[in-house]
Amino acid sequence: MSLILKEEIVYNRELVPDIYKLVFKSEYISKNAKAGQFINIKCCDGLNAILRRPVSISSVDVDKKTVTIFYQRKGIGTSYLSQKRTGDILDLIGPLGTSFNLSGKFKNIAVVGGGIGIFPLLFLLEQTTASHKTAYIGFKNKNYAVLVDEFKRNSHELLISTEDGSLGYKGFVTDLLAERTEQNKKAEQNRINGKKYDIIYTCGPEPMMKKVVELAVGSGVKSQISLEQRMGCGIGACLACACKIKSGNDWQYKRVCKDGPVFWGEEVEFNG
């Protein structure tokens, strides 16, 4: 169940240009949130940025009763949010939305994140009991690379890409995934070390997620994606965040905030 909460901020700092880490106290969310869910934040009072801003939950600490989120300063609402300081009160609703399927049958998993899409995947890696976890994270360049140490700690293998090659593999993170999935296919066929993933989870720009789903389908692997959409209410009432989801030979509209943000990859009708 989601609640309207007023929680105290304990940390709010810029990590790299326009990317902020915010930690707040919340016993309720730290105990009840699941990987893939989000909170809806009231960034400021008055008429400016009247709509709440959806932000994915990136980590929780049940013992300290804290929740960590990361957000990009991009517009009036998040600019106001970036000015909040330790001790200020955060007005929010959460946890909201659906969560990733972390079934115990998924033993060998991969997560694929691009840019700010990496943030909800960290929480997934913290919560899953999978026996082998591979993380693929992509950035524009090394100056925007964040949470590298955190992803190392929470995965068995970390692969990084940057578009300019300043850190890790040069190219898109989907190129890196394509190479590895092809290697896994050949290894499995030849009965040597290497096995295809049981599931691939992804979050990031829509073209990236579309490519991830295509690679997963081509390899006979399940996938789940976390869609990023502009939202109004965050509880499914306003229908501002509707997206196309396949239903048999047809499709229907689903609400990203209520029916998602997590969907099975092969069900999503991507634009283009």
Fold and architecture overview:
- By secondary structure, the protein is of the alpha/beta class.
- It folds into two domains: 3-96, Translation factors (Elongation Factor Tu (Ef-tu), domain 3, Beta Barrel); 108-267, Nucleotide-binding domain of ferredoxin-NADP reductase (FNR) module (Rossmann fold, 3-Layer(aba) Sandwich).
- It has helices at 27-32, 76-82, 119-127, 148-153, 173-189, 206-218, and strands at 3-16, 19-25, 38-42, 53-61, 66-72, 89-96, 108-114, 132-139, 157-162, 169-170, 199-203, 222-226, 242-247, 250-255, 262-264.
- The protein starts with a strand and ends in an 8-residue tail after the last strand.
| End-to-end distance | 35 Å
Helix content: 10-25%
Mean pLDDT: 90
Number of helices: 6
CATH architecture of the largest domain: 3-Layer(aba) Sandwich
Question: What would the keywords be for this entry?
Answer:
single chain; 272 residues; alpha/beta; Elongation Factor Tu (Ef-tu), domain 3; Rossmann fold; 2 domains; 7-stranded mixed beta sheet; 6-stranded antiparallel β-barrel; 6 helices
Strand and helix layout:
Elements: E1 3-16, E2 19-25, H1 27-32, E3 38-42, E4 53-61, E5 66-72, H2 76-82, E6 89-96, E7 108-114, H3 119-127, E8 132-139, H4 148-153, E9 157-162, E10 169-170, H5 173-189, E11 199-203, H6 206-218, E12 222-226, E13 242-247, E14 250-255, E15 262-264
